[in-house]
Amino acid sequence: MLAPVTNDRRLLLVHAHPDDESSQTAATMARYLAEGAKVTLVTCTLGELGEILVPEWAHFTPAELGQHRIGEIDAAMGIIGVDDHIFLGGAGRYHDSGMTTDEKGRAAVPDEMPDNAFWKADLLEAANLLVEIIRDRRPQVVITYDPHGNYGHPDHIQAHRVTMYATLLAASPSHRPDLGDPWQISRVLWNTHNTTRWAEAYEIARERGIELWPDGERDTDSFGPDPSKFVAVIETGPWLEVCRKALANYRSQVDTTHPFWQFFQIMQELPGSGETYLLGYGLPFPDSEVPSTDLFEGIAVSA
Predict the structure, then answer these.
(1) 3 in any annotated domain
(2) Within a domain: residue 109?
(3) What is the DSSP letter of 122?
(4) pLDDT tens readout for residues 139-171
């Protein structure tokens, strides 16, 4: 367990659906909570259109699945230790948009979606909901997805857009003073795949006979961005059990015996594996040659 550093560090994460936070940033949240930082998680939808993996829950309507996933994320936050979780605009304000695939198997926007789908959200309206949270919590560091939503899910892309717009609006003294005093975020980070570790895990999975993509081999360069672009890596190892318990808690969405999640577990166990970030906006890290091990490095933290 790491010794507390300061209680003035404040981290805010914006994710699209319940379980996204546990598969992508659980170690980051657990690490900074252990150091005494304030961690706020914003979830944009209830994940009503996620694939249901448990047969006895197959009858759930989207509304029923959404309510069930509220319980799952509440339990996951208990495992990680997050006590400040917010649904953007309130639970159910924005509906899961769903996802389809194009002729090349890539994530794509479905032809039909609910009227209140997050993908259809008015960008200014959704950003203002986040502006109010940002001005109230005053995070120095914010985490969300890259412009492609990491793999193309419409709600991930929209979460990126809303977060980046809200970051600029929150800092403007002229914008919506009724939403609180302006707040300048020091650094926005985009969580991403650690390309090198994913490629290593893929080779190990193949050696073990784990069939991930039956229709063809993956080019290891497709696992993520150029590693030279990584600005920070938060090691998974110290928080591995927390990460696994939080993710396994999402029984409606995650089958840890599935080949992909076996591969994912292999990746998590590799030496040096960790949750990896790109710089999306704001203050660069002091050393551009080596990824930082601290998301707040170089930021003058103030209350």
Answers:
(1) no
(2) yes
(3) -
(4) 999 999 999 999 889 999 999 999 999 999 999
| DSSP-derived secondary structure for 264-286 | HHHHHHSTT-EEEEEEEEEPPPS
Closest CA to 24 of 268, 294, 263: 268
Expressed as residue numbers, the domain containing 85 is 10-194+227-282
Residue 276 pairs in a beta bridge with 192, 233
For residue 300, tell me if it sits in a domain: no
* Number of neighbouring beta carbons within 10 Å of residue 212: 15
Position 252 pLDDT exceeds 60: yes
Number of domains in the chain: 1
Q: Would you say residue 28 lies in a domain?
A: yes
Indicate which CATH number applies to the domain containing 150: 3.40.50.10320
pTM: 0.94
Residues 211-251: pLDDT tens digits? Answer: 887 666 666 667 788 999 999 999 999 999 999 999 999 99
Q: Of 23, 41, 139, which is closest to residue 85 (Cα–Cα)?
A: 41
In angstroms, the CA 160 to CA 278 distance is 13
